[in-house]
Specification:
mainly alpha; two-stranded parallel sheet; globular; disordered N terminus
Length: 277
């Protein structure tokens, strides 16, 4: 399909309202707001940097306002209480935003930037998770002591980890299934297929965390929702092309970086982030 210019059309009222909620929600989940994140960046021992440091920095700084200390709060539906809280916060913020910005006709620029933040958040997260499996650190081959444990004494989480650890080639495959979509999302031309792959992979991880009481379903589920948000921009055109077999075009909006300082500044921020993370 060909690349066409974004039509200069006004957004419908419900589109603008939905975007305001989505913008606040996904910015909260894309940008680290927890001061401990920046403390960890500053105090990490980079001379002895290991995969646990990388995982703590990249993957697990989701907004945390409420804790429910129960089985459901750790492994079940109650563990998503902070997602519901962020959504309520986003709706409240969107109502205030709508009151002061009722005359705005479109949000193309903000839509572009929130997608940029979301795709780098997902990219760095799935790359960090992928490293642990590619180098067989997350689920190592079961030790002799583990193999002598009676089957009935395994926790569900441990059983899941051991059955993956006993097949190291499959674990490497799972790591590449996370790592490759992350790399694709670092570049805007390949962000859409990367988001589709990442959504499938981390969505499956979220389901497995529920099934085996692993406890990491919230960060995995949030990454899957962020990937869906990135994919949403092209989803209607993908459906028209592949399912309805209709002609369609790739629609893109890019802010104009007309000044040399803006162009070099964008590249400096991009590659500094890629180098650091």
């Amino acid at each position: 399909p060909s690349t066409v210019a974004l039509p200069a059309a006004e957004w419908k009222g419900y589109e603008a309202a939905a975007f305001r909620v989505a913008f606040i929600f996904f910015m909260i989940y894309s940008v680290p707001w927890d001061p401990d994140f920046y403390k960890l960046l500053w105090h990490t021992d980079y001379k002895h940097f290991n995969y646990r440091d990388q995982t703590e920095i990249i993957s697990f700084f989701n907004p945390q306002f409420i804790n429910i200390y129960s089985e459901s709060g750790f492994f079940g539906i109650a563990s998503y209480v902070n997602v519901a809280f962020v959504f309520i916060l986003s709706v409240t913020g969107a109502l205030i935003w709508s009151y002061f910005d009722r005359s705005r006709k479109e949000y193309n620029r903000l839509y572009y930037w929130v997608r940029v933040c979301a795709r780098y958040r997902v990219a760095y997260g799935v790359i960090a998770w992928g490293y642990k499996k590619i180098f067989i650190m997350q689920m190592p081959f079961p030790s002799v002591g583990v193999l002598h444990v009676p089957f009935i004494d395994f926790l569900a989480k441990r059983l899941y980890w051991e059955q993956l650890g006993i097949a190291p080639h499959y674990e490497v495959f799972l790591g590449l299934a996370e790592f490759i979509p992350g790399i694709l999302m670092l570049f805007r031309k390949t962000a859409t297929p990367g988001a589709a792959l990442a959504m499938a992979v981390v969505g499956n991880i979220a389901i497995a965390n529920h099934a085996y009481d692993i406890g990491e379903q919230v960060p995995a589920g949030c990454l899957a929702v962020l990937a869906l948000f990135i994919l949403w921009y092209d989803l209607s055109r993908i459906v028209r092309l592949l399912l309805l077999r209709q002609d369609t075009g790739v629609v893109r909006y890019y802010p104009a970086f007309s000044k040399k300082g803006e162009r070099y500044g964008r590249l400096a921020v991009k590659w500094t982030g890629n180098f650091v993370f």
